[in-house]
Amino acid sequence: MDKKEALMRFGGVIFVLGGLALIFFSGEFGSIEEITAQDKLAEFMLRAGFGSLLIGLLALFLFSVKTVPKELMDPLIQTEGQNLARIFEGLELKGNGIYIPPGGRLTEDRVYIPAELKPLPLPKLASEQVLVVGTTGPSMGASIIPPGKGMIDRIELDSGKKFKDENLMDISEALERLTKGTGLIGSITARSKDDDINLEITHSRFADVCNKAWKEDPSLHLKVGCPGCSSVLCAVSRISHSPIRIVNSEKIGKKVLYELERW
Ligand SMILES: [Zn+2]
Residues lining ligand 1 (ion), CB within 5 A? Predict the structure, then answer.
């Protein structure tokens, strides 16, 4: 929620409460014997009360219609995943994805999907590159913007804290901004030892999108992940200040498990 929305919501609540108070206390002044100044005051309070109530409800209502309902948002997110899976298949990219945080010639995050299945050194990437055709076959691949990047940028903007300023030792705590902080993801457990990082993600808001991606394109989670999983991977690579290669990903029950290594 940005400042403008928060202010509007707060104002809405104040107007609603003020309106209810005016309507309630207007009864205190009324009398049935004769029309007095008090009656006029009561009438004024009643009118002002209803007016205030209306303004308050309108402010709250206007705020709520600004958000896109889940039934509309999910198909939009799903289409992005479906398109990526098609592109990877069409380009015959077989390797697992490597998340790269901004730095060097990259002005923003990228996920690199190599053509080859076997793990090979990462080619030097620049922001403008999409299809990487190296001088040798093994360094070919595609470099795209992670689907979850926008969400991570937004969380950083709202919280005023950058993931790159966090410590890999406190990775679980840092990732709480995606769970307890925003309620976007149910829970994330992260364990880091040497260069290996293990993640356990339980989705809430993105559960349907993630499930569908696993059903339709099981390899998508090895290459970039659904937008929800991608946002977690994007945050992990920013926290670790290094490229993060997806070693394996599987879905067990409601949990998405990720085996990652710093590359
Ligand atoms: Zn997922």
Answer: 210, 226, 229
